[in-house]
């Protein structure tokens, strides 16, 4: 005879590989016998909203999230140590196929092996609670990483009863569970005193519930809450919105160039692999007061010349507080990016009225432009970069290589594409000079700034990146 627990309502069950929560225990006339009314984690598995023949036996959040099932069809699960044994203990039949001495050896060390386990993976197992008091501490005391994702735990009290016996627990994965919130959060703090990493993906929780639970995790450094019912965020420092289909983002409480009151603590943002195409989204990001780290790979932010490097330079120039872009420090690139930005949009600035009060349309599109002019000075007429079709950007540049430390060597004139990497230029010079590329030191001078020598310090940048133009001289030393 299958016994239904007295506290079955609210308990988690497994049925045909799916997970559900028991919402009702009792008869469902006109059929005979006992039924369980369950709400499925995946609503498409259900048939109704908890009603039958006009009678509402229980309620579901989804109109077709419920079903009635016989108790014999479900499992209420097993305790923690039973699940550990099911996952980690060698199958008896398998042992019997070995030599008897090997069998005895395994049986002799099985208990001790549990003691030394640093990692326990019980993903998709049917753990429903801790079991007998103190048994977890006695049997698996050294666990640091515990995965209890998609189990049958139903409340934080059960999680606490397990974790408080694991003094070294640092990483706990609880994704794809449905956990009732604790009545008294403070009673659970000690159980998670060593916890650094916590996974709560797909747990059907809201941000306010996360904040309600947060005091339980005093040492937490990394929290993952993907695929939940999160619509608003506060007190957030790191946020990943990668691969979410995001195309727009706005902070309407702040004017262009001002700071938003939203996300005051957000320092790191991941927007990789989205559908962001408009530069106005980047201007909105500039409103975040603490943002210093941005990852924005795999979007479709395109500069007028179609060059991805130019697009990165625009990101750096528009986001004045940025320290890291796409995992790379930007400090060395910032000055060049901002100066190029001034030149690139100088024509637009002049057409918008120039001076310190250009048109509001220009200010909306380039919120940082005036502050950059205050920082570096207004662009000279000869410095302004005229907008050019993308095809012209790949034109050949006439460059004269000179050798200031070798008076006898004559200058060499070459026509090179603006998109050519400095590394390729050094390869060309190696063939001409027979000097190893690694020994070559390059800089350049421009007719527009006579007397100033600019260092070319990265082999992985292009001539265009350094703003080298037709007629410039490249100085070669070794």
From TrEMBL:
Source taxon at top rank: Eukaryota
Pfam families: CAP_GLY, Ubiquitin_2
Transmembrane segment boundaries: none
UniProt domain CAP-Gly: residue ranges: 26-70
Main localization, broad class: cytoplasm
GO cellular component, one term: nucleus
Compartments in which it is found: Cytoplasm
InterPro entries with a match to the protein in the record: CAP-Gly_dom_sf (IPR036859), CAP-Gly_domain (IPR000938), Leu-rich_rpt (IPR001611), LRR_dom_sf (IPR032675), Ubiquitin-like_dom (IPR000626), Ubiquitin-like_domsf (IPR029071), Ubl_TBCE (IPR044079)
Keyword Electron transport: no
Keywords: Chaperone, Cytoplasm, Leucine-rich repeat, Repeat
Family from the record: Belongs to the TBCE family.
Name the record gives this protein: Tubulin-specific chaperone E
Organism (species): Sparus aurata
Lineage, uppermost ranks: Eukaryota, Metazoa, Chordata, Craniata, Vertebrata
